[in-house]
Amino acid sequence: MSYIRAKRLQVAIDLVREVKDARLRGIFHCFGGTLEEAQAIIDLRFYLGIGGVLTFKKSGLDTVIEDIDLQHIVLETDSPYLAPVPHRGKRNESAYIRFVAEKLAEIKGISMEEVARISSDNARQVFLSTKLVSSQ
To answer: Which of 5, 60, 72, 133 has a CA 20 to 30 Å removed from the CA of 30?
Structure first.
């Protein structure tokens, strides 16, 4: 991860920490940080958005994700960017999320169906149980 990207991630974590209240929830999109950053995000009750970067050989994200419980992960595409291997370098699309799920299943030693179930449950927790909060 580049210095600039790492610095931006830390700034985002610090901002969320600063304004944190019980109603604030979400996903850190396209997570690619360290285990320590992942834990800080999880401690804030946010999810890690994991996409095609997980399938990249030299990303190092696989070693971070090994130590993160699936209950903290949501799969995402980042379409049209960051297509997973074997489509890396091409335009990403939603259908390719299967490759991310396969890689995550391989890392965790579980079935792709289990990854899909847990990640989908996590997404529902964010998007279906979140009520719009008035700023009044």
So the answer is: 133
Model pTM score? 0.89
Q: Across the strands, what pairs with 27?
A: 47
Task: Let me know: does 53 contact 132? Beta carbons within 8 Å.
Answer: no
Tokens 């396969």 belong to residue: 102
21 pLDDT band, cuts 50/70/90, is: confident
**Tens digits of per-residue pLDDT, 54-99?**
999 999 999 999 999 999 999 999 899 999 999 999 999 999 999 9
Residue with tokens 């009044």: 136
Residues of the domain holding 42: 3-127
Domain of residue 73, CATH code: 3.20.20.140
Q: pLDDT (tens digit, 9 = 90+) per residue, 37-54?
A: 999 999 999 999 999 999
Number of domains in the chain: 1
